[in-house]
Amino acid sequence: MNKMVKVVIAAYGITPFTKDDQKIESVLLKSAKNLFDNNPKINRNDIDAVLVSTNSNSKYLSPILSEMAGIQPKIAHSVESLCNSGTNAIVSAYSYIASGLADMVLISGAERYDSPGQILEWDNSRGEFKHPIFWASIFTKSYKREFSISDEDLAIVSVKNHKQAKENPNALTMDTCTVQDVMNSKKLTDDLRVLNCSRPCTGSASILLASEEAAKKITDMPVWITGIGQKTISAGFTKHASFSSMESTKLAGQTALKMANHNTEDIDVVEIHDAFSVCEPIALESLGFSSTGDGIGIVKALHETDNFKINPRGGLIGSGHPLGATGIAQTIEITQQLQSNAGNRQVDSAKVGLVHNMSAAATSSTVLVLEK
Amino acid sequence: MNKMVKVVIAAYGITPFTKDDQKIESVLLKSAKNLFDNNPKINRNDIDAVLVSTNSNSKYLSPILSEMAGIQPKIAHSVESLCNSGTNAIVSAYSYIASGLADMVLISGAERYDSPGQILEWDNSRGEFKHPIFWASIFTKSYKREFSISDEDLAIVSVKNHKQAKENPNALTMDTCTVQDVMNSKKLTDDLRVLNCSRPCTGSASILLASEEAAKKITDMPVWITGIGQKTISAGFTKHASFSSMESTKLAGQTALKMANHNTEDIDVVEIHDAFSVCEPIALESLGFSSTGDGIGIVKALHETDNFKINPRGGLIGSGHPLGATGIAQTIEITQQLQSNAGNRQVDSAKVGLVHNMSAAATSSTVLVLEK
Lengths: 372, 372
What we know:
The structure is a homodimer. By secondary structure, the first copy, chain A, is an alpha/beta fold. The first copy, chain A, has two domains: 7-114 and 201-223, Thiolase/Chalcone synthase (Peroxisomal Thiolase, Chain A, domain 1); 124-199 and 226-371, 3-Layer(aba) Sandwich (Peroxisomal Thiolase, Chain A, domain 1), CATH 3.40.47. Chain A has twelve helices and nine strands. In chain A, strand 2 (49-53), helix 2 (61-69) and strand 3 (75-80) form a beta-alpha-beta unit. In chain A, helix 1 (24-38) crosses helix 2 and helix 5 packs across helix 10. At the A-B interface, helix 2, strand 3, helix 3 and strand 6 of A face helix 2, strand 3, helix 3 and strand 6 of B.
């Protein structure tokens, strides 16, 4: 790994997550437009690549976005890997810059509330349950049983993340909730209630990556991508060795931290892929932020002290989950935190942040380390 | 551009193009299996990335292929850009290796005969004609009018490419045809008959890219990617400045040849994206292989001397066009030619080859230069 190549997050754009019924092309353009509006120094002729992250069935979205945004890039295509499409596109953009094929890459992620990426037909091990609540239920039951965790304990993830989302102007909802609200919400399976789940929604998020030199023209608050880790274990859920840990997350985290030359104690702010409540403590454990079975202890302690360190924008549960935009929105949140630009969500003196984005019951994961 | 980084085509796999009604996952696996069967020295644990090129609406195909093929990659996602998805995936794989994020990348492209990538709903300029014959008709009419080319002249592209496809064991059909056969084939529009068109089909093609060091373990006949050029002009057809030339192809070709430090005279064998007869002469002109309006002259001269220099495997018209696999199949053909492994299709002493792959009426193009 060539640590000498420096890639910068030079700009970003994001718009509110909603339940709007809009064409994917319109959704996609919104955050790109927001990015350009907020960064008038960007010359569109300098953009070498446009990568679109989405699960939409619409084709040729990168040339379409490029045409609408007035860009004629060299490289243009869509990237799909279910829920971690966004960070897959970011890592691809990083590699285009680090390899010298591009100096500036726009990555735009977008999804509609009715995304076809919510179902994984291929995975027969899910039986009739094609929806992710199948694996989330098994994770929840396994985690509770193995570590004597209660439904009330897990509800705190949702309570905390809804509280934090209230400070995020782009979140799907501003509603807060109590443990009792979670416990009283509609029962979906033995182990899952509706407030334990992130909700699909319509939204987009865009970032511009640039080489160190190219970024100088655009920003004087560069945020660097210093660590990258990715791992795919399988596609099918039942290939997991354990239903209460995330092997792909563990390996991706180790690789990213090693590349960045950091350990978990150095990380000031974290975006965790909390597709369901149980994902937050399990991911914290697999990433090494806590010992096995004690992830929920961290969540509780942070919640009680109103510390926004984990999922400051409200996570997927609080912000909504527009699949192809999620990894990019997570990366924008860490960027805002490192730039001390996160408003009421700001974590004190954040210098190093981590993004955790995963797909399909953590059968694959991406971890990024960002630094100012 | 860092010309010092060397990326090798270390292995490939391909299976016949058909009209079979098979699941996309099965189609995808076939060429990957062929690649591994033919290259027993590959250690699957060395594969850092698996990129899938397709227009299929099926999601998470890279982790699915990885699981079926016994690979647990770091990087895994699908790439889509209509008909040049394949070369987009190849260039992405190149950048992962050149950046140091990967040493070995499997790229597998696959499509079914009923691919959703055949229609571009978004492009309103096509009116009610969503199918590519809309733009192909306009290109054909414009090219014929501008350079006084006849339907019989253009028919020779199809005659030549069907003749060449007969020597390609993976081609969709072994049928040859005469100019009169083309002229008598079913009329689709004023300017297009069915034998002027490439046909959608079911097929897959896989290649393995590797760093110079990693490739040494696998092959002693390395083929190097020495030139890369890509350009997107627009998504909509009517944004073209001309309907009888291909601006994206011209710019991509110039970039690729410059990077490889070659000019067109150095190129011994060429894969051209002949989605329709007219595309072959226009692309030859835009790439600089002939002066404007004389592309068909080259085609005729090669045909009359049984010289397979242009589209030795039969092009898209002769081989069939499984969208996501096409760019990879083209790259495999040039690799076989440079390795003197192309059987009856072999072009004499081929040392430098070029791949031209494009999408949506040449609104975007990729050009690769390969060398042995």
